[in-house]
Design goal:
heterodimer, A: 183 residues, alpha+beta, 6-stranded antiparallel beta sheet, 6 helices, 41% helix, B: Transcription Regulator spoIIAA, 6-stranded mixed beta sheet, 4 helices, 6 strands, SiaC (chain B)
Chain lengths: 183, 124
């Protein structure tokens, strides 16, 4: 195999355009997630919504760690999800997003779930969260099935998402949460 | 029944379980990789204390927890409510930083369905 020259400049230019505070692509682990969380806390230490932004980042990252359809085994022989996480700042606010592979059969469920959440007021989200928290754990969930509701409650405005189909089995799922700056 | 003191890590809280006093404390931040597994010792301790018919004082003093931990906290409160319903002596304290409205509101949400003694306290 020949040693290829990789054009990192192109990647660098593309990512620079977004003004990213944090970006990660690869196999997650609890350690990586913790470090990225620390980076957010450092770079947003003066921001009043820092606790909400941190919490939303952790939910998205742990979703990826547990549920990304692309998985790799780590040093400890544990499986972990692969994907992309970013935190972006612009003049009006912040943008926290994750992207990872999902099975096509999950698209319908995720779409309906997010659309339902987006249609709800803050009060409706609060009741929905409480109701879900008090019900039985979903079978394939490590949590309470309330991650997306929590993300919607903490962020400002609707969740934005898209699916890019790869093949008959897999799609790339991108989901974004937004925060407005207070002044 | 043994007392237990679990030190905090970057992603998990300090946990103090004192069997003599029937006192349990969870302090700090909670977003471990597997919340159910992490909190198992708390449920073991609760069932031992309850089997001995002791009184329980459960104190939460948390800065942040993720949704998986939130579900476990709900399970702990349900467990305490059941003990209370059977005549067990239970008191819950929910401590939140003075300026932390979110944590105050979270405590109010958790307690809204409970009939056991649930005290909210702010600290500086």
């Amino acid at each position: 195999m020949e040693n290829e020259v990789i054009n990192l400049f192109k990647t660098y230019q593309e990512t620079s355009e977004y003004n990213l505070l944090v970006s990660f692509k690869g196999r997650l682990s609890q350690e990586v997630l913790t470090e990225l969380g620390s980076m957010i806390r450092t770079s947003l230490s003066t921001e009043s919504k820092i606790k909400k932004i941190f919490a939303v980042f952790i939910e998205l990252a742990q979703n990826m760690l547990h549920y990304s359809a692309e998985r790799k085994i780590n040093e400890e022989q544990k499986e972990a999800g692969v994907g992309i996480l970013i935190v972006r700042e612009n003049s009006v606010g912040y943008h926290v997003a994750s992207g990872n592979l999902v099975l096509n059969e999950k698209i319908e469920f995720l779409t309906e779930r997010i659309q339902k959440i987006n249609s709800m007021s803050k009060d409706e989200l609060k009741s929905f969260y409480q109701q879900q928290l008090r019900s039985e754990r979903p079978e394939d969930s490590k949590g309470a099935g309330v991650g997306l509701i929590d993300i919607a409650r903490k962020s400002d405005g609707p969740l934005v998402f898209r699916f890019d189909k790869l093949d008959g089995k897999l799609s790339f799922f991108t989901i974004s949460a937004f925060f407005t700056k207070e002044n | 029944m043994e007392s237990l003191h679990i030190q905090q890590t970057k992603t998990s809280p300090e946990i103090i379980l004192e069997s003599d006093k029937g006192l349990a404390e969870i302090i700090g931040e909670s977003y471990p990789e597997n919340a159910m597994a992490f909190y198992k010792p708390v449920f073991d301790w609760l069932s031992a204390i309850q089997n001995a018919n002791k009184q329980i004082q459960f104190r939460f003093q948390m800065d942040y927890f993720n949704t998986s931990s939130s579900k476990v906290i709900m399970d702990i409160l349900d467990n305490l409510q059941k003990y209370h319903d059977k005549g067990g002596k239970v008191e819950v304290e929910w401590l939140y930083k003075e300026d932390d409205e979110d944590m105050q509101e979270t405590g109010e949400e958790f307690s809204s369905d409970l009939s056991l003694p649930f005290k909210m306290k702010s600290y500086k």
